[in-house]
Amino acid sequence: MIQPSQHLSAAQFAPLLHTFRRQSPLVHCMTNDVVQNFTANVLLALNASPAMVIDADEAAQFSGFADALLINVGTLTRERQRAMQAAVSAAREAGTPWTLDPVAVGALTLRSDFCQQLLSQQPAVIRGNASEILALAQQASGGRGVDTLHPAVAALDAARQLAKEWNTRVIVTGEVDYATDGQRTFAIRGGSPMLTRVVGTGCALSAVVAGFSALPGDGLLNIAAACQVMATAGEKAAGQATGPGSFATAFLDALWTLEGDHETH
Amino acid sequence: MIQPSQHLSAAQFAPLLHTFRRQSPLVHCMTNDVVQNFTANVLLALNASPAMVIDADEAAQFSGFADALLINVGTLTRERQRAMQAAVSAAREAGTPWTLDPVAVGALTLRSDFCQQLLSQQPAVIRGNASEILALAQQASGGRGVDTLHPAVAALDAARQLAKEWNTRVIVTGEVDYATDGQRTFAIRGGSPMLTRVVGTGCALSAVVAGFSALPGDGLLNIAAACQVMATAGEKAAGQATGPGSFATAFLDALWTLEGDHETH
Amino acid sequence: MIQPSQHLSAAQFAPLLHTFRRQSPLVHCMTNDVVQNFTANVLLALNASPAMVIDADEAAQFSGFADALLINVGTLTRERQRAMQAAVSAAREAGTPWTLDPVAVGALTLRSDFCQQLLSQQPAVIRGNASEILALAQQASGGRGVDTLHPAVAALDAARQLAKEWNTRVIVTGEVDYATDGQRTFAIRGGSPMLTRVVGTGCALSAVVAGFSALPGDGLLNIAAACQVMATAGEKAAGQATGPGSFATAFLDALWTLEGDHETH
């Protein structure tokens, strides 16, 4: 029986952020061209270690050292697909958890086929918006790209089904984020509409989720904490911003200074 | 007979910005590696929807959904040239307007040949600096890269000739920007020298121009309004900045808050 | 006999910064995907002219116009390796000085082999962290990527050896930076730990070093001044920042406003 969504308490969230910063996971990001810089800066602001290695041979080598791997198909090409496949295979062999961000899946053929293939390769986490999760579960075609046409809750059943079918965890993000393993579900509130006016906040969340997936303990709780970190920083930044430029700056500062223990909901 | 340049009145500029934000055009940006992030953030700050899709097959698919396409040859490779060509062909078939930013044309062979080929493929708009427009009109070789060695007005005749010859619209940018269809010409003032100290402001303008080219109405007026939006935001940001870092932040905030109705000249 | 490290005096540093800004060197940056935007903005903030040209034929053409070339292997692929090799060959033929940033050399095979090959092609400068310089001198395998596991001083002997063996100049960066030609050594202090929390500060330093290597005069002093410019701006920015977001903004502003004559140590 499906349990109702739980919220993260401050007592759950703060120590995980502390552990993340102390462990400083090395996150191998194979992500899209548009967001590489911002993704790296978000990880650095949380004291993690980002690394972008993209040649197929080097990416496979690197997945052996890294604590986590992120695959984001935003600017997929056939060459990158080969490199990503090599990295995923090496990560699985090394026991490195890997996270899939299926950007704009459903709308475009190359990435849709690739993401469907990747489902059977044991991703630790899948993170997408509602349109992407629906498309991945093949319940709907995707939106018109990176936009989502559905609220996150509309894809919650699809997320649970996907999680159960592939024995993974799924995060659907939107005004409220949901993290589910098919049985338990966390609902994460906070954030800000301004997060949709800075490119790469969702992609960077996927990288942070990848990093949190390398922590010990309750895997679902860990990735829910990753969402809460980003939502809380977003909310804090929105209070200081006069537009998306100052918001992006304040967001990185908020990640850096976040205590976690008195900012959750 | 060529008419003298006209200025944009506030009454012309404000409602177009309003329409742009409300329509939120989906702009497919095939642009250079250096400026993708900033370009996306500029479009988002104006409430448009940027998307960067670069595989040849996916790019052709995507040009069918998008409201506008941008081709910027700043970091051209042979593979990207094939993908850009596929996207332009698909855009023409779908009736999607496409804009050409011929970065550093004239100075380098691959891009110069490609840009000359593209001229016959009905771009809705061409946006370049004086050196680039002169090179494209084959009246001079280009500058030493992205710099321009000429004021915009030096290329105004070349711009008019290019617009007439290829039945398109041409924007030459510099201290003053000019937008012409070969008959009518708008002169756009404002801006700030600080715009030349942040990478990608010209490239981002081309993306905004691409988005405005998808609006209904007077096509030349629409793209002149795009220039005025960027110039006005630049002027506003310069008043708040202590260097190029704070300028870039203030520029994105200014795009977000710009009213348009009391800031034109 | 090896001389002890010297410090840069204000009298040495200020006029070199002035010359750099006046000459505005055109720096051809073949660098990694993650840092292209920040690298360009750092150069622009110092009044230099960045250009990123990546196709093999165009890169070779461009190395003829440029004042300096930077090769950074952070996101190396086989295709980029070919383009970088073409650019280095053309730079050598044209007498354009070129700088090597051997990101993560030692840890990954493709880049390690390529960097070893490049050593014999007369780089004007090599700039790396301690792990990278040790790996390049084949005294140790590299760190786990872009991180360094050693303080800069631990690689100072390796740097001197490398400089003498290949008749070049080597910069090892860390809490203190060292610039050596194998005989003389400058030690550069200042900077901020916050520089490690913004992606690309080291890569951007390499681009600035490449630009300073094009100045006339004492080649070792020139590149030491480049390090001092970045360290001084970093120190200034840290005093104004509340996190890595505001630090990055303040850093670009500090580069823009730096006088050099009263800020050295």
Automatic annotation (TrEMBL), chains A, B, C:
Function: Catalyzes the phosphorylation of the hydroxyl group of 4-methyl-5-beta-hydroxyethylthiazole (THZ).
Keywords: ATP-binding, Kinase, Magnesium, Metal-binding, Nucleotide-binding, Thiamine biosynthesis, Transferase
InterPro entries: Hyethyz_kinase, Ribokinase-like
Organism: Pantoea anthophila
Similarity comment: family membership: Belongs to the Thz kinase family.
Keyword flag Membrane: no
Binding of ATP, residues: R127, T173
Binding site for substrate: M52, G200
Classification via CDD domains: THZ_kinase (cd01170)
Protein EC: 2.7.1.50
Pfam families in the cross-refs: HK
Cofactor dependence: Mg(2+)
Name the UniProt record assigns to this protein: Hydroxyethylthiazole kinase
Pathway named in the protein's UniProt entry: Cofactor biosynthesis; thiamine diphosphate biosynthesis; 4-methyl-5-(2-phosphoethyl)-thiazole from 5-(2-hydroxyethyl)-4-methylthiazole: step 1/1
Listed GO MF terms: hydroxyethylthiazole kinase activity
Catalytic activity: 5-(2-hydroxyethyl)-4-methylthiazole + ATP = 4-methyl-5-(2-phosphooxyethyl)-thiazole + ADP + H(+)
